[in-house]
Design brief:
The structure holds 2 protein chains of 2 kinds.
Chain A lengths: L1 H7 L4 H26 L7 H21 L5 H21 L2
Chain B lengths: L2 H20 L4 H11 L4 H25 L5 H24 L2 H28 L22
Helix pairs in contact in B: 1-2, 2-3
Classes of the chains: A mainly alpha, B mainly alpha.
Chain lengths: 94, 147
């Protein structure tokens, strides 16, 4: 989503990161029923989910506040590095 | 509370910061954390990750919206497109083997990351000549031919 926004729609990096996170909300909500009805009945470990969310909700707020103060250059390179790492992981360990 | 719960909070915190900062859902951190760290199966990891992504994205997204750093129109378009893509992907996934899809996605990300590197370098070179228009608006950065 971020490369789509930055490379194709030419959206500013900072704006692209924030916009991507908002766009994830409807996708994740739509993915839940599809995921549950097409792949049998995958289990959710509610205990782990609860503790993950306790951490991630605080983290998401902190990260979102941080975005304003991170300089442009490291932000751009950071996103590119993250994409490279995730891409390599998907390619080697699908 | 076991050490596993504490590890989940710390891992969640890390995923959340990355999510708020970079705009990923957090699944890229949640899933390996659970399969490699907690020994959960891939199915449970994905199901749990999907459940954890929604509140994370809601809090991070709401914070961004309040800071007025979101292009709501672009979010609606990409979100809407993503919903269609998610349905198409789920239907496609029935016919195409999972690892094949994951590899295609990985290759796409690697190509994109190189393009992003190139753009980051170009941006730092032209940093002394900022574009005239408001960033994020078509025409602000470079003119886009309307179709």
């Amino acid at each position: 989503m971020i490369p789509l926004l930055v490379l194709w729609a030419r959206v500013d990096q900072r704006l692209a990161n924030a916009t991507s996170l908002v766009a994830i909300i409807p996708i994740a909500i739509a993915a839940v029923p599809i995921y549950y009805f097409t792949k049998g009945s995958p289990e959710v470990d509610l205990r782990i989910a609860l503790f993950l969310v306790i951490g991630s909700v605080v983290g998401a707020y902190v990260g979102a506040r941080l975005l304003k103060s991170v300089p442009d250059r490291p932000l751009r390179y950071g996103v590119a590095v993250l994409m490279l790492v995730v891409g390599l992981k998907q390619l080697v360990f699908p | 509370m076991s050490w596993l719960d504490v590890a989940a909070i710390v891992g969640g915190l890390f995923a959340g910061v990355l999510s708020g900062l970079v705009g990923i859902g957090g699944g890229q951190v949640f899933v390996p954390l659970m399969t490699i760290g907690f020994g959960a199966s891939q199915v449970v990891a994905q199901g749990t990750s999907l459940a954890a992504i929604i509140p994370t994205a809601v809090v991070g997204g709401y914070t961004h919206v309040r800071q007025k750093s979101v292009d709501l129109e672009a979010a609606a378009w990409t979100g809407g497109g993503g919903v269609v893509g998610a349905v198409a992907g789920a239907l496609l996934a029935v016919h195409v083997a999972g690892p094949v899809l994951a590899r295609i996605f990985g290759a796409l990300l690697i190509v994109s990351s190189f393009l992003m590197f190139r753009r980051a370098r170009a941006a730092s070179r032209s940093a002394s000549f900022p574009p005239a228009g408001r960033p994020g608006e078509p025409g602000g950065d470079e003119p886009i031919t309307p179709t």
